[in-house]
Amino acid sequence: MSDETTNGAPGGASGAQPAQPQPAAQPGVRLNILAQFTRDLSFENIVAQKGIGGEVSPEIQVQVSLDARKRQADHQYEVICKYRVTSQNSADQAKLFLCELDYAGVFHIEGVPEEQMHPFLMIECPRMLFPFVRRILSDVTRDGGFPPFNLDPIDFVALYRQEAARRAQSGAERPQGQPLS
C-alpha cells in the first residue's frame, strides 16, 4: 500500500509526509447466499370460504420468528424466517385471510467471530432474505383475491434485542459455545 498526497500523486515527492505504519489488515467478513427457498407456504382465503357481508375494513397483523442452524459443511448455516400474516375485519373481527410463509436461506459465512455469529445469523441473514419474502407475500395475497400486501421493513436488530430480553427473563438465553438450534 502506498501513501498518497491529497492530489493523488504517490508520496515521496518533496514536502510529502513520511509513510506511517499501517495497522494489520483485519480479515473481512465473507457472506454468500448459496440457496434460498420456500420451505412452507399456506394461504387461506376465509372470505371466499365463508363469505363476509357488509363493510370490510381490514386490520393486518404480522408475526415474525427466526431460526438458524449450522449445516454439516464448513462455514454453512441455514436461516429460516417464519412469517404469519393475519387479516381481520375491524368492524366484527371476522378473519379475512391467513398467510404463513417459512422462507429459508443457506449461507456461507467466514470471518465472523464465534461470539458474534448468532446475532449475525439472526440480523444480517434475514435482512438479505427480506426483499424476497416481501415479494412472495405481495404476490400470494394479490393472487388470493386481496390487494397486494406490502410488508413494511422489519427492524431485525430490534427483533433480536426483544428476543434476547425475553430469553434473559425466562432464563433460556443461549450459553456461549452452545450450538445453534
From TrEMBL:
Any one Pfam family match given in the protein's UniProt record, by short name? SecB
Q: Where is the signal peptide?
A: none
Q: Where is this region: Disordered?
A: 1-25
Query: What HAMAP family does the record tag this protein with?
Result: SecB
Task: Give me the stretches of Low complexity compositional bias.
Answer: 15-25
Specify the protein name: Protein-export protein SecB
**Job of this protein:** One of the proteins required for the normal export of preproteins out of the cell cytoplasm. It is a molecular chaperone that binds to a subset of precursor proteins, maintaining them in a translocation-competent state. It also specifically binds to its receptor SecA.
Q: What PANTHER family would the database entry show? A: PROTEIN-EXPORT PROTEIN SECB (PTHR36918:SF1), PTHR36918
Organism from which the protein derives: Paracoccus niistensis
